[in-house]
Amino acid sequence: MTNASLRGIDTNLVVALHALLHDPNVTRAAKTVGIGQSSLSHALARLRLHFGDPLLVKVGRAMVLTERAKALVGPVDAAVRGLTAVFSPEASFDPRVSRRRFRVVSTDNVEVFLLPHLMPLLAAEAPGVDLSFHHLGGDWQNELRRGVCDLKLGRKAPLPEGLRNQDLFRERLVCVLRRGHPLAPARGKPLTLERYLSLGHVVVAPTTAVSDPVDDWVDRALRGRKLSRRVTLVVTHFLAAPFVVASSDLCLTVSESLVRAFRPLLPIAAHPMPFGRGEYRLSQVWSAHADGDAGHRWLRGMVARAARAAASGERMV
């Protein structure tokens, strides 16, 4: 149906039809709608003219639906639900009783440092709310626009029109080597740029296709200095990289929060970046169509609280 054909439709007739389809008694249906019986009788006459069908016929002492009217029940119910959703005031959201499921896309390093802080908050304040975390793919912007997912968590980057973002905290990159690495600097000494470039490196590329070159922040920063490093290994998951470093002579440049999570488990040590500030901002991104969603606003607030708690850990180097 085009916009032009919609102009001739009176939404009051839709409401009247909905009442009559669920109660063919004109007197009772009029009370349901909140209008007089004569007004509803007039609406019924207009509906009969529109559909070319009597809609209600008398059988004995009762009014019953015609076959055409019976076929309208489902579509009219759907139309009323849609109109209610569009024109009703914003639905409230009570996290204490909600059974809603939210879908989030992120990289696994974000899950490692955020979820241990987020899930206790949900358990205490929203025991019926569920989360589904999914691997960050290359099409996440369209997934947000289509409503396939609710949030994207990750490194802040320029966004196209129609997407919103909120900074969560500033993250710092560090260089990770195994303890006892032959090229690790002595205690209290920095890792030099020359030594950094002499190492083999493991790089995490979560969304990089097989045919795409590895080109992360570090490589771009080095290229700006007319330098390059040897990328010995590329993996798709951040969680794999610390284990590789712990059992090899490779170097990993990664967020400090991930190293903080693995340091008690693996024989690894963090060192300051030998060039640049090595900082970036972690943000949450959502579609503009979710701005007015009370539940969505609540989720973003919970993520921000969890991120603040996660970011309060002590610096390692």
Structure characteristics:
single chain, 317 residues, alpha/beta, Arc Repressor Mutant, subunit A, D-Maltodextrin-Binding Protein, domain 2, two-stranded antiparallel sheet, 11 strands, elongated
Structural summary, described in words:
- With 317 residues, this protein is an alpha/beta fold.
- The protein has three domains: 85 residues, Winged helix-like DNA-binding domain superfamily/Winged helix DNA-binding domain (Arc Repressor Mutant, subunit A, Orthogonal Bundle); 100 residues, Periplasmic binding protein-like II (D-Maltodextrin-Binding Protein, domain 2, 3-Layer(aba) Sandwich); 108 residues, Periplasmic binding protein-like II (D-Maltodextrin-Binding Protein, domain 2, 3-Layer(aba) Sandwich), CATH 3.40.190.10.
- The strands form two sheets. Strands 3, 4, 5, 6, 7, 8, 9, 10 and 11 form a nine-stranded mixed sheet that branches. A two-stranded antiparallel sheet has the order 1-2.
- Helix 3 packs across helix 4.
- The termini are far apart.
- The mean pLDDT is 88.
